[in-house]
C-alpha cells in the first residue's frame, strides 16, 4: 500500500508539471504573436528613389589637358552633402569606364564622404554663420585605394583635383572652397604631385575648361 505522504508528493508533482506545461504553452503563443507582429510591421514597399535631376560634371581629358562640361540626368538626394557625393560618384564612375578620356580606377566608391562646412575665412565677422547662402567649404574624403591606384603625374593628378572642384561648384554654387582628405587623414599629395595639403578655390576649374 502506498503511503499517504507519497500520494501527496505525486499529486504535487503532477500539478507542478501541468502548471509548467501551461506556462510553456503561453510563452510559445506570445513568441508566435510577436513574430507575426514583426512581420506585419515590416515595410512592404520599396524605398523611394531620389528623383532624377540634371547634374553638371566637369570632365577631364588627358588628350589635350582640358576640362569639359557635360550634363547628365542623375537621381540626386535633397541633402546637399549626399548630392555632392552622388555627383562625384558619377564623375568617378566615368573615369573608371574602359573608354574614359581620363582613366582613373576606383569608381564611385573612391569618394567616402563629402562634408560641407562654412567657409569662415571668406565671411566677415558680422556675417559668419548668419547668411543662409553664405559660402561653403567642401571637405572631400577619398579612399586610400583611390589614391594608391591613381596614375602618377602632375597633369593627371591636377586634372582630377580640378574636375572634382569644378563639379562640386557647378552643382552646389555655395561651395567656393575644397579641401581633400584620404581615409580621413591629411595627405601631402594625391599620387606624388598634386598638392592635397592646400585649400582649392572651387571655381578654379573654369580657368582651363572648354565647352
Protein architecture, described:
- This protein is α/β, with parallel strands linked by helices and 211 residues long.
- It folds into two domains: 1-44; 52-210, no CATH class.
- The chain is built from four helices and seven strands; from the N terminus they run αββαββααβββ.
- It has helices at residues 4-41, 80-96, 144-149, 154-171, and strands at 52-61, 66-75, 111-118, 136-142, 175-182, 200-201, 209-210.
- It has a four-stranded mixed sheet with strand order 3-4-5-6. It has a three-stranded mixed sheet with strand order 1-2-7.
- A hairpin with a 4-residue loop joins strand 1 and strand 2 (66-75).
- The longest helix has 38 residues, at 4-41.
- The radius of gyration is 30 Å and the shape is elongated.
- Mean pLDDT is 84; it is low at 122-130.
How much beta, percentage-wise? 15-25%
Q: Please, what is the average pLDDT?
A: 84
- Compute the number of structural domains: 2
The computed structural class is alpha/beta
Distance separating the two termini: 109 Å
Percent range for helical residues? 25-40%
Q: Strand order within the widest sheet?
A: 3-4-5-6
Radius of gyration: 30 Å
Amino acid at each position: 500500500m502506498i503511503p499517504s505522504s507519497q500520494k501527496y508528493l505525486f499529486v504535487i508533482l503532477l500539478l507542478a508539471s501541468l502548471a509548467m506545461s501551461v506556462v510553456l504553452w503561453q510563452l510559445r503563443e506570445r513568441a508566435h504573436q510577436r513574430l507575426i507582429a514583426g512581420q506585419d510591421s515590416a515595410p512592404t514597399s520599396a524605398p523611394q528613389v531620389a528623383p532624377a535631376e540634371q547634374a553638371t560634371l566637369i570632365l577631364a581629358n588627358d588628350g589635350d589637358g582640358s576640362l569639359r562640361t557635360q550634363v547628365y540626368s542623375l537621381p540626386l538626394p535633397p541633402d546637399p552633402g549626399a548630392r555632392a557625393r552622388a555627383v562625384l560618384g558619377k564623375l568617378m564612375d566615368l573615369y573608371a569606364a574602359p573608354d574614359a578620356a581620363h582613366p582613373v580606377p576606383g569608381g564611385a566608391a573612391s569618394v567616402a564622404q563629402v562634408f560641407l562646412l562654412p567657409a569662415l575665412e571668406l565671411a566677415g565677422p558680422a556675417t559668419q554663420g548668419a547668411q543662409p547662402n553664405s559660402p561653403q567649404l567642401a571637405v572631400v574624403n577619398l579612399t586610400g585605394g583611390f589614391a594608391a591606384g591613381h596614375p602618377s603625374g602632375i597633369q593627371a593628378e591636377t586634372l582630377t583635383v580640378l574636375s572634382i572642384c569644378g563639379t562640386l561648384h557647378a552643382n552646389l554654387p555655395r561651395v567656393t572652397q575644397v579641401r581633400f582628405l584620404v581615409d580621413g587623414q591629411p595627405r601631402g599629395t594625391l599620387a606624388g604631385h598634386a598638392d592635397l595639403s592646400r585649400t582649392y578655390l572651387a571655381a578654379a576649374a573654369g580657368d582651363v575648361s572648354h565647352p
